[in-house]
Amino acid sequence: MTEIARRSLLSGAAATFAAARIALPAGAHAQGSGPETTAAQIGFSPLSDAAPLIVAKERGLFAKYGMPDVDIQKQVSWAYTCESLALGGDVGGVDGAHMMTSLAYLIQLGQATRTAKAVPLHLLARLNTNGQTINVAKALMPTGARVDASPLKSKLAGKAGSRVGMTFKGGTHDLWVRYWLAAAGIDPDKDVDVVAIPPAQMVDSMRVSTMDAFCVGDPGATSSWPRSSATPPAWCRTCGGTIRRSRW
Fold first, then answer.
1. pLDDT in tens, 103-118
2. What is the pLDDT of residue 24?
């Protein structure tokens, strides 16, 4: 090795060491065996994409990998999940949760809780990349609205009491349903009321005719379809397309 090459190598190593000291002032340490804690409170909403958490708990997978004291807690709404995360597992809330992707960013920005508390979060796993649906009321099905919502414009735009449901302001369902309406020339801020409704209450709200359409994840959508000839007629149908493959 020449003197110039040796000098360049030593200079590069020194720069790397200096950068490491800045990034890790306490030094880097090898991780010990097992997880950092054996306990965690994890929230979930009763949706199909929460299945991995539920199965892991029921089959003992948390315990198998060193966390026997994990507790999963059903949340009543996305808003409740956000507040629980802000509170924390040590004082009656949760340490982590199954949630819509956009909620994680809103919580970290302090835009999802009543106190505007910003809570640092990490996305550890993507549980679902499909399974969301946009549904319209049975009374509106003759319009032919599917992915293209323009047939609904004359029925909804400017009509008093027109309501479209989603699960949380700023959540992915909110974004999708607003895009769906706007693409058809229906202003989601002026022509209809876009309201937040907990996923578990979505189908019942449609059933009692308080909504014209909604966006939600399974099983909120498929539970609105008839299961057999003995059940009541379907109150809504899936529009399919970019949100979910059509089941027409």
1. 889 999 999 888 888 9
2. 47
> How does 51-78 read in b/e, with b if 16+ C-beta sit within 10 Å?
eebeebbeeeebeeeebeebebeebebb
In this structure, which amino acid lies at residue 149?
A
Closest listed residue to residue 207, CA positions, set 224, 228, 227: 224
Comma-separated ranges of CATH 3.40.190.10 domains in the chain: 132-238
Whose CA is closest to 186, among 134, 235, 142, 238?
134
Is pLDDT larger for residue 164 or for residue 23?
164
| DSSP of 60-119 | THHHHTT-TEEEEEE-S-HHHHHHHHHH-GGGTS-SEE---HHHHHHHHTT-SSTT----
User: What would the two tokens of residue 35 be?
Assistant: 């997880």
Per CATH, is 132-238 categorized as 3.40.190.10? Answer: yes
Beta partners for 117? none
pTM of the model: 0.71
Q: How far apart are CA 159 and CA 155, in angstroms?
A: 7
Q: H-type helices in the chain, by residue range?
A: 3-23, 51-58, 61-64, 78-87, 101-108, 153-156, 172-183, 199-207
Task: Please indicate whether residue 126 or residue 164 has the higher confidence score (pLDDT).
Answer: 164
Report how far residue 3's alpha carbon sits from residue 7's, in angstroms, rounded to the nearest whole number. 6
58 closest CA partner among 70, 46, 47: 70
* Bridge partners, 193 (sequence order): 163
Beta carbons within 8 Å of 146's beta carbon, 6+ residues apart: 239, 240, 241, 246, 248
Average pLDDT, the chain: 77
CA dist 27 and 20 (Å) reads 8
Mean pLDDT of 131-147: 82
